[in-house]
Amino acid sequence: MAEVITQEKSGGKQKKKNVKIDMTPMVDLNFLLLMFFMFTSSFSKPNVMDLGLPGKDPNPHPINDIVIDQRNQITFIIGENNRIFYHQSNEKDLTDSGLKETDYNGLNVSKIISEAYQKAPKKEIFTIIVKPTDDANYKNFVDMMDNISISKKERYGISDIKPWEKKVYENVIK
Question: pTM value?
Answer without folding.
Answer: 0.64
